[in-house]
Amino acid sequence: MLKINSADQTRVFFVDLVVFQLISTDQMIIIRILFVFFILSSARVHGDDNMPYTLRHSSIMPIPDLSFLSDVYTGLDIIEQMDFKPLKNKSIALLSNHTAVNKNGKHILDLLKDAKDIRISFLLALEYGIWGIDDNRAKLIGRDKIEPTHGAQIIDLFNTYLYPPHWVMDNIDLILIDFQDTGSRYSTFIATMSKVFEAASEHKVPVMVLDRPNPIRGDIVNGPVPRTEFQSFESYHLFPIRHGLTLGEASVIINEMGWTKGSKRVDLKIVPMSNWQREMWFDQTRSKWSNPKPFLIDQGNILAYTGMDLFRGTNMNIGFGTEFPYMVVGAPWLATSFLLEKLNDQKLPGVEFLEVKYRPSGSIYHSKVPKFDGQSCSGIQIVIKNKDEYRPIVTATTLMLLIQRLHPREFQWEKDDYVDKLFGSNELRILSAQNKPIDHLPAIWAKDVYKFSEFRQSFLIY
After folding, report:
1. Which residues does 281 contact at the CB level (< 8 Å), separation at least 6?
2. E strands present in 171-252
3. Contacting residues for 106 by C-beta, under 8 A, at least 6 apart
4. Which strands make up the sheet holding 207-210, listed edge to edge?
5. Alpha-carbon distance 426 to 452, whole Å?
6. Which of 148, 182, 277, 370 could form a disulfide with 360 if both were Cys (CB 3.0 to 4.6 A apart)?
7. Rounded distance, CA 60 to CA 342, Å?
8. What's the gap between Cα 39 and its chain centre?
């Protein structure tokens, strides 16, 4: 009689859970027998065996090879099918937001509602809160916001606290992290996570990250790495603008390299995805899409955002106050016909440009008034024709420099040279001031891309 150890029993049980609703009983029996044989002969799992670098402070949870299934399973899907066993008998602080949903669109808080012996004691909120701009699920008790399903106190780590308070850290056994990142380093989510790492290290609380896809592919790296003097919450780590990392991979790099204050490390465990490939766009994963930020509304504009967010460092409107954020740039004084002619001369790949008229109104931030609010703007609309060929950072910087040269008086940089913090250096402004050829700019960050691409190889999980 064949004997299978407890760890392998868990893997077989997990496969049962994943596929039992997808296939017939006879098929299930055949697959289960094959899987048992596969485990006994040469079980292949995601994790340290695929990673050339020996992790010293982090670990990748072993999971079965589910390549016989076509869908991508996120870290949340994986741990859900494990019946949340790694979370049992723990008091947990959850760093998350509305994007932490499983394949069926069910949020992690709802999934854990009926889980026994798991207590969500605190919710650590990123920028835009636990539920994004729709905060109706939280209720106010005294001065504290409470999530009613679990009775967990919500701790705002963007507007109120920089670190989780000591009275949070002293009363938990684990920090659980699950959110959809943007694939671009402008997001403040990674910076907040790094501050949580620092608190976890100081209080010796372990951290578990449920991995999710990079929505704009994991095999493309582009843009400059920030110089130390230009680092900010929106350029917090030495990642290029388009870093090609999953949330788990970024976590491993930060932890292993000690990219936190005082080089603090945590006891970090990554629950990896299954079946994710680096060349995948998000829509190829068959995962449920949830907007990471209020103005990142679909997979087209999250790709454009990778370049167009640099315009927040200028006095231009980039579609805020409209239904197409990041897909248009304009101002009342913009001469679009001449600009369009110059843009077409650049022959930028994968993209076309259209002249548009629009009027920004209100604010998708619910707290900020968009630039040129209520004014009629002449604009250039971005139409992505081939997302594989489209180069968002090159496109955005080309557009920016052309506008600056066409309107040297009207075009302005935001105060305190804010664009330097977004770009990661002052080289964009310097090249603009020196009136150098526009195509010189990508060459400036080419060395950064090469070095980072080589560096990150040792930390890739997939």
Report:
1. 215, 216, 217, 299, 387
2. 174-178, 207-210
3. none
4. 58-60, 268-271, 207-210, 174-178, 90-96, 118-125, 152-156, 144-147, 139-141
5. 20
6. 370
7. 50
8. 33
The shares of helix, strand and coil residues in the chain, as percent rounded to the nearest 5, are: 35, 15, 45
Find the length of the chain.
462
Domains in the chain (CATH in brackets) are 1-43 (no CATH), 44-290 (3.40.50.12170), 299-425 (3.90.1150.140)
Confidence of residue 24 (pLDDT cuts 50, 70, 90): very low
Structure tokens, 263: 């080089």
Predicted confidence at residue 65, as pLDDT, reads 85
The torsion defined by the Cα of 364, 367, 371 and 375, in degrees rounded to 10, comes to 80
**Token couple for 360:** 């920004």
Contact (CB, 8 A) for 88 and 10: no
Using DSSP's 3-state secondary structure scheme, residue 194 falls into helix
358 closest CA partner among 384, 342, 334: 334
Q: Which two three-digit tokens encode residue 143?
A: 């001065």
Unique residue bearing structure tokens 């065996």: 49
Instruction: Please give the Cα distance from 173 to 352 (Å, whole number).
Output: 52
The count of C-alpha atoms lying within 13 angstroms of the C-alpha of 187, restricted to the half-sphere facing its C-beta, is 27
Average pLDDT (357-385) is 89
User: Rounded to whole angstroms, what are the CA distances from 111 to 104, 118, 123, 160?
Assistant: 11, 11, 15, 28
- If we measure between CA atoms, which residue out of 123, 51, 112, 58 comes closest to residue 84? 112
Task: Give the bridge partners for 73, in sequence order.
Answer: 274
- Could you identify the residue written with the tokens 């030495």? 238
pLDDT in tens, 178-209: 999 999 999 999 999 999 999 999 999 999 99
Kindly list the distances between the CA atom of residue 136 and the CA atoms of 130, 141, 147, 348, in Å, as whole numbers in the listed order. Answer: 10, 14, 10, 44
